[in-house]
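[Automated response] Your request has been received and processed.

Submitted sequence:
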Amino acid sequence: METVMSDAFYPVVDLESVRRQARMSIVIIAAMAIGAFILGFATPIPGPQKATIMDDGAAFSGRLVSLIDE
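Generated structure:
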């Protein structure tokens, strides 16, 4: 007795539909890659921060840890 798989496991697929979906997937991935590339150039890169001058009796400046060794 031979076991035969049902046709329900192997649906008929239109090859043109598969090609169209593959092309659309590639176009969408390329568009996202180009968008990320452009966005990478469009976002500003933070430059050096300007230090504020404080007098000797100044209050808390907001930074608990110094980033510069003195």
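Summary generated for your ticket: The chain has a mean pLDDT of 77. DSSP finds one helix and no strands in the chain.
If you did not submit this request, please reply to this message.
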